[in-house]
Write a structure and sequence with these properties.
This protein has about 50 residues and is mainly alpha-helical. It contains two helices and no strands. The chain has helices at about 10-15, 15-25. The N and C termini lie far apart (about 35 Å).
């Protein structure tokens, strides 16, 4: 399989369309909730939470 390549500039310009296309390539369902999340540290951040 070919790797999925995400252009950072395109992601910044149009995150919704890039994420929709990426989800299609990965056979995942897209939701608008993927574009935002509450601020603050998360337990899954691990050692990076304190950086």
């Amino acid at each position: 399989e070919d790797p999925i390549v995400i252009n950072g500039n395109e992601l910044r310009k149009n995150p919704r369309s890039v994420l929709i296309e990426t989800c299609k390539q990965l056979d995942l369902s897209y939701t608008d909730e993927m574009l935002s999340w509450p601020a603050g540290p998360k337990p899954i951040d691990g050692v990076w939470a304190s950086a």
